Amino acid sequence: MSNLLTPEADSVWMDQIFGLNYLTVSVLIGLLLIGILARFSTMLMAPRVLKKIIPSESIQSKTVKDSDKALGTAAGAGITLYIFNALVKLHVEEDNSFILPSVLQDLLPNLLQFVFALSLVVWAFRLVAIVKDVVELFDKDGELDGSEKTLISAVESLLRFIIIALGAVFIADALGFNLTSLIAGLGISGLALALAAKDTISNLFGATTVLLDRPFKVGDWVIVDSVEGEVMEISLRTTLVRTAADTVVTVPNANLVNTPIENFGKRRWRRWQSLLHLDLNSNPDDVAAFCDGVMELITSSAVTVKHESSWCQVSNLSTQSLDLSLNLYWDVAGGAPEREAKEAFLLGLMQLAKTKNLKFFDARMMMNA
Question: Which own/partner pairs from 204-207 qualify as long-range (CB within 8 Å, at least 24 positions apart)?
Answer without folding.
Answer: 204/236, 204/237, 204/253, 205/253, 205/254, 205/257, 206/252, 206/253, 206/254, 206/255, 206/256, 206/257, 207/154, 207/157, 207/234, 207/235, 207/236, 207/237, 207/253
